[in-house]
Design a protein that fits this description.
The complex is a heterodimer of chains A (318) and B (296).
Chain A: H1 9-28, H2 33-52, H3 56-63, H4 71-78, E1 81-84, E2 97-104, E3 107-114, H5 120-125, H6 133-149, E4 153-159, H7 166-170, H8 173-184, E5 191-200, H9 201-205, E6 212-216, E7 220-222, H10 226-234, H11 240-247, H12 251-256, E8 262-264, H13 275-294, H14 298-310, E9 315-316
Parallel strand pairs in A: 3-4, 4-5, 5-6, 5-7, 6-8
Antiparallel strand pairs in A: 1-2, 2-3
Chain B: E1 19-21, E2 28-30, H1 51-58, E3 65-67, E4 72-73, H2 85-96, E5 102-109, E6 112-119, H3 130-146, E7 150-156, H4 164-183, E8 188-196, H5 198-201, E9 210-213, H6 224-231, H7 242-247, E10 253-254, H8 260-272
The chains are: A alpha/beta (318), B alpha/beta (296).
Bound molecules: zinc ion (ZN).
Chain lengths: 318, 296
């Protein structure tokens, strides 16, 4: 897949030009600082203009950018230690979901995350982040362990959806997701969920029930992928941009609808342009949320968790 | 997750004549032999039922008290595809005479009181938007407060796309309510009828204490068309049918409509001790007979 998104072309051209200029300055020993500074200022302006005006569909494209940081990057960038635990105790190890103990500034947590993979081989191995029932069962096993040990749970959500396959159906995909959703309401430890890329329907929600649910600025959360929605309602997957707009799946809309509690900022030009900055933003959010949630009495935590989801959606009873 | 409903939603008007053709085996059924259960006498195919027909067939006569009947949909997103969602809802209400895809209330079955929810596939494919999610949640809370067993008949293409992530979150809302109900000993039976897929299967339908299915019902997470397109191969015979799920350990029993009342009343008797399960329904049900209209 070409990393260049059409709407990013002016940004990429300018980035390229700045690099050329810097290389020229290096090789010729000419002082081109003024030119470079001016171009960099223009680059910031153009990038800001492009990214402030992204359509919902363009944001979906950003959320799927091949260089966008994925769960593995957050694990490496945020935690001083990570100890992966694989077993679902039932059928097999689903690499589309990773679970394990992790340490963040000396705080112990349990991490659960969709894994999309980075290299082509890796992506195939992780089934592109589309989990089977085993992934959800592994997540529940480990979340129950976290509850027993009193460790907060951090879920990183990034999937187009749970895998639609024969084996997945035979082994109870629907039940695995449903059970996770129900049980996450019972876990007596804080749960923080962050949609870091794609929040694809039940496959996302299967590890997405939390006391605090946040979303990165260019991530999305939806009942169905825009392509899937377009294929059904518009009878054409080409209408995905229209579907993305209609579904109101972008972070600002989700915040307004009360689906997410907080939007985590991405650097100018998207998470893929400055992964380290993005990871730091997520880390700051995590530290703050962990401290806030851990200070709450358990009963109040569980009651608030339920009431948050209980309040989602209005009806007309006139 | 969210599915289209058009492929299941073909309206099968019963011709006014003396004969009805079976969808499954094409047998011509003499109208007189076609009882309120709507089962083909030849191949036992279970024809679709509307929520109202289901309630009438399942609950003791005159026992059903509907709750939240006037609850209506709010078009929170201002959704529009080729037509506007608000218009689609209004047209569907006109056409079906129902406000939404779910009917809830208090009912009695063979003398057993219970909280009853029935999904209506005829209303936008039984899809779950905020109203369906809210009704299920209130029903669970009602069962909790009134100390009643909870029975939900599921029939749905999944979460409703037109309400976006709000539909998705109804999966969480319903499961959250069920967690509380079940944790304090509440008893919940779900009955999966044709078809039950997507976000309904992946939420309240699949976390029941006892999961029943009607014969031949299509039940799954992903719809068969999606799986076929993903895998680019034909699906095994009988894949995702109730019998297949029983074989795979995903449901507890397949129950014919003729035995649903007794089975559920008996399950409730086992769960609550309200009656002797061995004698539940003995005087009421005769296999194959029309039972929907009887008193108890
Ligand atoms: Zn037949």
């Amino acid at each position: 897949m070409d990393a260049a998104l059409a709407f990013e072309r002016p940004i990429l051209e300018m980035e390229h030009k700045i690099q050329e200029l810097k290389a020229l300055a290096d090789s010729t020993k000419l002082n081109l600082n003024g030119e470079v500074v001016a171009l960099e200022a223009r680059l910031r302006k153009v990038t800001g203009e492009v990214y402030d005006n992204l359509t919902p569909w363009e944001r979906v494209r950003v959320s799927r950018h091949p260089q966008r940081p994925v769960t593995q990057d957050y694990i490496n960038g945020i935690f001083e230690d990570f100890l992966e635990l694989h077993g679902d105790r039932s059928f097999g190890d689903d690499r589309a979901i990773v679970t394990g103990f992790a340490t963040i500034e000396a705080r112990r947590i349990l991490l659960v995350g969709h894994r999309k993979g980075k290299s082509v081989k890796d992506r195939l191995l992780c089934n592109f982040g589309c989990a089977h029932p085993e992934g959800y069962r592994k997540a529940l096993e480990k979340m129950r362990l976290a509850e027993k040990l009193g460790l907060p749970i951090v879920c990183l959500v990034d999937t187009q959806g749970a895998y639609p396959g024969i084996g997945a159906e035979e082994r109870g995909q629907a039940r695995a997701i449903a059970l996770n959703i129900r049980e996450m309401f019972s876990l007596r430890v804080p749960i923080i969920a962050i949609v870091i890329g794609e929040g694809g329907s039940g496959g996302a929600l299967g590890i997405g029930v939390g006391d605090r649910v946040a979303i990165l600025k260019n991530a999305y959360y939806s009942v169905i992928t825009p392509e899937g929605c377009a294929a059904i309602l518009w009878k054409s997957a080409d209408k995905a941009p229209e579907a993305a707009a209609a579904l109101r799946l972008s972070a600002p809309d989700l915040f307004e609808l009360g689906i997410v509690d907080e939007i985590i900022d991405e650097p100018l030009g998207g998470a893929h342009r400055r992964p380290q900055e993005t990871i730091q933003n997520v880390k700051d959010f995590l530290l703050r949320s962990l401290d806030e949630l851990q200070a709450r009495p358990t009963e109040a935590l569980l009651e608030a968790r339920y009431q948050k989801f209980r309040a989602m959606g209005r009806v007309d009873e006139s | 997750m969210a599915m289209g409903w058009s492929r299941f939603g073909k309206k099968k008007d019963m011709p006014g004549g003396l004969w009805i053709k079976c969808d499954a085996c094409s047998t011509m059924i003499f109208r007189k032999d076609f009882t309120a259960e709507r089962i083909c006498p030849e191949c036992k195919h279970h024809f679709p039922l509307s929520a109202d027909e289901r309630v009438q067939l399942f609950a003791d006569e005159g026992s059903f008290e509907e709750l939240w009947a006037n609850m209506k949909t709010v078009d929170a997103l201002g959704f529009k595809d080729r037509v506007s969602y608000a218009e689609k809802i209004e047209n569907t209400r006109q056409k079906t005479g129902k406000n939404e895809a779910m009917v809830c209330g208090r009912a009695r079955v063979l003398g057993q009181d219970l909280a009853l929810g029935v999904m209506d596939f005829g209303f936008l494919g039984g899809s779950m938007g905020v109203v369906v999610g809210e009704k299920v949640t209130r029903l669970v809370e009602f069962a909790n407060e009134e100390d009643l067993p909870l029975v939900i008949f599921c029939s749905s293409g999944g979460a409703r796309m037109h309400e976006g992530a709000l539909s998705l979150m109804q999966m969480a809302k319903t499961c959250g309510a069920l967690q509380r109900f079940q944790a304090r000993g509440g008893f919940y039976v779900s009955v999966l009828t044709n078809p039950t897929t997507g976000g309904v299967t992946a939420s309240f339908a699949s976390v029941a204490d006892v999961i029943l299915a009607e014969p031949g019902a299509l039940i799954g997470f992903a719809g068969p068309r999606v799986i076929k397109e993903t895998l680019k191969q034909d699906l095994p015979k009988g894949f995702q049918r109730a019998e297949f799920l029983l074989e795979k350990g995903q449901v507890d029993r397949i129950v014919s409509r003729t035995e649903l009342r007794t089975t559920i009343a008996k399950l409730c008797a086992y769960a609550t001790g309200s009656a002797n399960p061995a004698t539940v329904g003995a005087a009421h049900e005769v296999a194959g007979g029309a039972t929907g209209g009887e008193g108890s």
